[in-house]
Protein 1
Amino acid sequence: MRRGVLIFIIVNLLIITFLVRNVFTLLSLLVEDASADAIHRADIPSPVSSLLETRPQIIPKIIHQTYINESIPAHWVEPQQSCINLHPDYEYMLWTNEKSREFIATEYPWFLETYDGYKYPIQRADSIRYFVLAYYGGTYIDLDDGCQRRLDPLLSYPAWVRRTKPTGISNDAMGAIPQHPFFLRVVESLQSYDKHWFLPYITVMYSTGPLFLSVVWKEYMREGNFDRVRILMPDEYNRFSWSFFTHHTGNSWHGADAQLIFWVCYTTIH
Ligand SMILES: *[C@@H]1O[C@H](CO)[C@@H](O)[C@H](O)[C@H]1NC(C)=O
């Protein structure tokens, strides 16, 4: 066999191995129902319960949100205020573009080049939330999610994210203790996922967005990590009056159509 042919075959095998590994993770996400890690409904007291919270609250009482600057658009002021008003004893941190960049430059200088290099602003908004959770811990909430009840019961889990249908997890509401191994892994994975796909939507979803987070989550679980990430299921997320959040429209990037994009990703990457 000629050397050129051999190299050709080896390169192709490498590419195929890479693709199979990625596609396998994506497909395995489809059958992951997360029930093993679901936050049990029975563990969440009713919002009007007079029972004292007896479980230790380990996630710091900090609410993180992100926006371009301090001028929050009118349609997001109400959901923003609903979270602030319910949690007067929580620290509130609004991560503006300026504050976010400063934070990355100071605390994670190795990431600054990637951060500045992102083509779409939403990639910076996505990535900063993982870094502040890894660093400070607390609860991140998208500006278009309002709060219906206090977050306290969720502070008992070392880390939680929310389940999305039909598959995967989202990055619009999530909480963690500082330096949780999952979020450390997430921030350390960002650089290797900083790739361009042929559609902006896929690029964003798979480089920093919910698809990226879902894939890292799936790999993290496959390695049998002891520090599991608990999952807030859709009913507890925003379906009922006793759920934690309410959804406000206002063109959040990873909104309802994000689910459609999940499916587009599966078909195109496959
Ligand atoms: C904040 O950002 C918005 C959107 O880019 C812009 O319209 C507004 O002027 C900015 N406000 C301030 C105070 O810079």
Protein 2
Amino acid sequence: MIRGLENVSVLTHISMLFLTTIMSIFAFGNPFFLLTISLPYLIFYMIDRSPGNGEVMRFRFNWWKNLPIWKYYCRYFQLKIEKTKHLESTFDSTNSGKLNGSNPITYIFGYHPHGIAALASFGLTNNGCDFDTKFPGIKMSLLTLTNNFQLPFYREYLLLSGLSSVSKKNILKLLENYISVCLVPGGAKESLAIDFSGNKINLVLKNRKGFVKIAITNTKNGRRTALVPIFSFGENELYKVVKAKEGSFLKNLQLWLKNNIGFTIPIFFGRGIWNADFGLMPYREKVTMVFGNPIEINLDNFEESSEETVVNHFHHLYIEELLKIFNENKDKYGYQNKVINFVD
Ligand SMILES: *[C@@H]1O[C@H](CO)[C@@H](O)[C@H](O)[C@H]1NC(C)=O
């Protein structure tokens, strides 16, 4: 029974893009729905700029955050948040509207690795694994590609779940309103770099510095900002990836796609609902997200330095903290034979 509910919640989430596409076809293809629902919706769709304007919190409702489905979603992965350190609150935890003091801190969380679909990171955004209880007084928006917000109805699903666009403009607006953000610096590129059969955790991070720059900009605007790395043990194991052999048809196809349209799609599979051998459901692997120590941006000693020096300095500290939480926890979570490997 419980397993069934867990399956339903994960299945709902991974099929949401498909379900909302079907909804759109009905909504726009049927004259009755078109007049009653779709046209008013279309007007809203065209006017509403919340995903890119730092306004996602307008869509955050406690009843949605606390829906039982999110609890079952997290239970599927035995998903847990583990903190290394208490994070200072941004908002007064007794009265969620009020700021904690005159100069509260805001966070940029970085989630690693991306895995195939960063499924576990979704557990952070609603209250399924108690983010709000673990980090009281911190409001957070999980960030995803802007294109996702162009899809009718899917965008509302994301907005209700606290997701917004990973654009620079949106992030700066959110931080201005003291809303913390969580992003996945490795992006889709990292999902292509998964080394499933080997022992490497390939991370695309060396040249991904945009989030550090944004933290520095926000600090220069007079707001305290900290970077917090998250390492998610288990995220990479949720799907198996088919590694194409050199010279095989699949490898050639992937190379062709990469050269001609600029990206390629990993071939992956998971389990079925009733069988463990094949399907698109993720494996029931245990996932633990370890949060590192916050790295607060302090520019006091950098008045004379070039922007590049400052960015590299904090980017380096961030990577060190990420490696530290990985190395200190890997034995506990069955990663003793694995190493982090930075790729381009
Ligand atoms: C509120 O902010 C102060 C620093 O300004 C900090 O020391 C304190 O721990 C914060 N409160 C909570 C509950 O985190």
